[in-house]
């Protein structure tokens, strides 16, 4: 069985990280397989939204694989960090929106994976943390940047420097997750959100994701220029005509998708 399982449900791709016996820890095999699957999804316009979750009851992903890292040299550790960053950047820059359905522990590289997704729905059993400091290392898959962006410097520092876990309710209060739901409603909630997004104009959805992402790491003038360009692209679409006419004719829009 593959370490990444993909199930298609209409326009939604559900990816499951499948190493439940080690709490879905990310080893090189998982990272390379994720890279391959994401590169295929990127080119597949029939996939409108992606959901990422973990196999089993206990964990989303409990981090990078410590049994693999323990054997790494300095150079291998650096390259491992770069590979993880590359794969998570693929998620962030995927044209399709990505939802993390966090079903349990999201620690270290697992928390970083969830943070690279566009939205996070958490089970009330989920726990988040960056415990790398307890291993004598620091987050290496983009966590220092993404956690700081998401929760601000003071809370990011506290979580990274203490290595302590927080529960789903705390994560929601910090703005780290969009919504917390009962464990048995997790996938259903993530799918409902995915279907809602999949029903919109996909040109507008992709433009919105790109504009928000570009705004994050740039100044307001550049972000506005990018937004206006993408706004113009939406104006060229059939979906724009349909969306506006449907509003004026007081009927639901039928986007081409
Ligand atoms: N890597 C490798 N194996 C892991 C793992 C990881 N990150 N997390 C859990 N496992 C393995 C355990 O070794 C154990 O294997 P065995 O059954 O063969 O002993 C199995 O998964 C089940 O785990 P536990 O017995 O520890 O389960 P628990 O319920 O007692 O504890 C836990 C759960 C609190 C999540 C604990 O497993 C834990 O602390 N895991 C490590 C979390 C961590 O430190 N993550 C950060 C890794 S570093 C990183 O991610 C760097 C980076 O930024 C790129």
From TrEMBL:
Enzyme class: lyase
Coiled-coil region(s): none
Key words, A-Z: Lyase
A GO BP annotation: fatty acid beta-oxidation
InterPro entries (alphabetical): ClpP/crotonase-like_dom_sf, Enoyl-CoA_hyd/isom_CS, Enoyl-CoA_hydra/iso, Enoyl-CoA_hydra_C
Origin superkingdom: Bacteria
Recorded catalytic activity of this chain's protein: a short-chain (3S)-3-hydroxyacyl-CoA = a short-chain (2E)-enoyl-CoA + H2O
PROSITE patterns (alphabetical): ENOYL_COA_HYDRATASE
Keyword Lyase: yes
A Pfam family reported for this protein in Swiss-Prot or TrEMBL: ECH_1
Family: Belongs to the enoyl-CoA hydratase/isomerase family.
Subunit: Homotetramer.
Name of the protein described by the UniProt record: short-chain-enoyl-CoA hydratase
């Amino acid at each position: 069985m593959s370490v990444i399982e993909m199930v298609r449900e209409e326009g939604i791709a559900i990816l499951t990280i499948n190493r439940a016996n080690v709490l879905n820890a990310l080893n090189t095999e998982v990272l390379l397989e994720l890279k391959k699957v994401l590169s295929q999804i990127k080119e597949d316009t029939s996939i409108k939204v992606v959901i990422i979750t973990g196999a089993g009851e206990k964990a989303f992903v409990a981090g990078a694989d410590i049994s693999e890292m323990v054997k790494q040299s300095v150079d291998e550790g650096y390259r491992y960090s770069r590979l993880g960053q590359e794969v998570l950047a693929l998620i962030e820059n995927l044209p399709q929106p990505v939802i993390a359905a966090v079903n349990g522990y999201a620690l270290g590289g697992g928390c970083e994976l969830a943070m690279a997704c566009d939205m996070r729905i958490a089970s009330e059993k989920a726990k988040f943390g960056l415990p790398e400091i307890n291993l004598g290392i620091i987050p290496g898959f983009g966590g220092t940047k993404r956690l700081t962006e998401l929760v601000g410097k003071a809370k990011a520092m506290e979580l990274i420097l203490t290595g302590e876990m927080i529960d789903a309710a705390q994560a929601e209060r910090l703005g780290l997750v969009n919504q917390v739901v009962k464990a048995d409603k997790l996938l259903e909630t993530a799918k409902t959100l995915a279907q809602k997004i999949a029903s919109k104009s996909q040109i507008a959805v992709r433009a919105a994701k790109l504009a928000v992402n570009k705004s994050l790491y740039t100044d307001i003038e550049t972000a506005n220029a990018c937004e206006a360009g993408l706004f113009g692209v939406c104006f060229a679409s059939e979906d724009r005509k349909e969306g506006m006419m449907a509003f004026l004719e007081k009927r639901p829009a039928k986007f081409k998708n």
